[in-house]
Amino acid sequence: MTSIYERFRDLIRAEVPVALATLIEGPEVGAKLLVEESGSTLGGLGNEQLDRVVGRDSIAMLDAGMSEVRHYGPEGEARQHDLSVFIECHARRPHMVIFGAVDFTRALASQGKLLGFRVTVCDAREVFATRRRFPMADEVVVDWPDRLLERIGSDLGPRDAVCVLTHDAKFDVPAIVGALPTRVGYLGAMGSRQTHEKRIKRLIEEGVTIEQMERVRSPIGLDIGGRTPEETAVSIVAEIIAMRTGRNAPSLSEGQGSIH
Amino acid sequence: MNEIFEDIERWRAVDQRVAIARVVDIEGSGPRDPGAAMAVNSLGEVAGSVSGGCVEGAVVGEALELLEGRRKAGITSFGYSDDEAFAVGLTCGGTIHLFIEELDW
Fold first, then answer.
1. ipTM metric
2. Domain boundaries in chain B?
3. What's the pLDDT at B85?
4. Residue of B28, B47, B30 whose CA lies nearest to B39
5. CB contact under 8 A, B105 and A5
6. Which of A81, A162, A227, B42 is the most buried (most CB within 10 A)?
């Protein structure tokens, strides 16, 4: 029979989301309950009611991708402190979708990988969107942005990022229009302030509202004076981090004047 | 956790006993988030880390005591180390709480 450890190890290695709850204070210190996203469990903490409550909490924490200690009564009662349970969550990797197979994309894909993202590069031009040019990406897709987003848009969530680097209204507009209805946490589009002004006009023609446009970070990235593809990539991932943590870092989209 | 499986597997393959220490909580400024893990085998070999190198030495001691039956599984905390020469702790001013147990599950 597979032990809890072996199941835990195999799921993590296969990148399947899993939570491991360990009783760290209470009568059976070390007791474990392994919880999968589907709700199926292995092991137990010594009480069925407690297992049910911890299972439910673990699934919610998996969605948020956080690990922490929770306190319960002997049968899983809330607001009691008889038991402490450490719930360790291994959520799926956040997803970074980059539209545009340009030089900036290579640097951003590498930065994304460094930060633990699953990286997809998408461009409709098959001469540019090749594995050879983007060996660091998990996936290189030759398709139009709106078609890719139609397929994967409902899977995008607050921990994910869409970066539009195409610099060409023909691709930018469908990418932004396709990303706006999703739950994606970060949506940024490359281009100077002038490019973005023109893009806004095109987007409004497509029926996008000014309020919706406020979600788009453009010019993309933090205002750190980056110039090269690599420096620009750092400014983009830094903006993604600052947005997640809610820190007040200066974004280019909130400033004025030249971006370099 | 993923980064320490390889070493754990090697140790288990030769029937080495293994202790695991995991960060379960931090107060104030701590170098690693809850979930950071380190494994120690009965020879004192180490995989992974739970801080920026500040408390790993002490954790090896606790892990060996556990494997030798001189302490039970449970929470061990490390706080701020002042200038007492032998104090073990975090220089960053925070407190970390670790859960240390044997990998027998």
1. 0.90
2. 2-102
3. 43
4. B47
5. yes
6. A162
Give the number of other CB atoms < 10 A from CB of residue B9. Answer: 10
Q: Give the model confidence (pLDDT) of A94-112 as tens digits.
A: 999 999 999 999 999 999 9
pLDDT recorded at residue B103: 97
pLDDT digits (tens, 9 = 90+) for A101-150: 999 999 999 999 999 999 999 999 999 999 999 999 999 999 999 999 99
State percent of chain A over pLDDT 90. Answer: 81
B34·A86 Cβ contact <8 A: yes
CA distance A152 to chain B (A): 27
> Which structure tokens are listed for A165?
């680097």
* Contact call for residues A123 and A101 (beta carbons, < 8 A): yes
Give the number of other CB atoms < 10 A from CB of residue B46: 18
Q: Which of A9, A13, A88 sits opposite B22 (nearest CB)?
A: A88
Rounded Cα–Cα distance for residues A93 and A95 (Å): 6
The full set of domains in chain A, from first to last, is 4-90 (no CATH), 95-254 (3.40.50.720)
Among A22, A157, A154, A156, which Cα is nearest to A89's? Answer: A22
Count of Cβ atoms closer than 10 Å to residue A2 Cβ: 10
CA distance A81 to A37: 26
Summarised one tens digit per residue, pLDDT across range A163-207 is 999 988 889 999 999 999 999 999 999 988 888 889 999 999 999
Taking the CA of residue B53 and the nearest CA in chain A, the distance in Å comes to 21
| Cα–Cα distance measured from residue A220 to residue A255, given in angstroms and rounded to the nearest whole number | 11
- For residue B80, what is the DSSP state? B
- Chain B positions in Cβ-Cβ contact with residue A43 (cut-off 8 Å): 105
Residues forming beta bridges with residue A139, ordered by sequence position: A120
In angstroms, what is the C-alpha Rg of chain A? Answer: 22
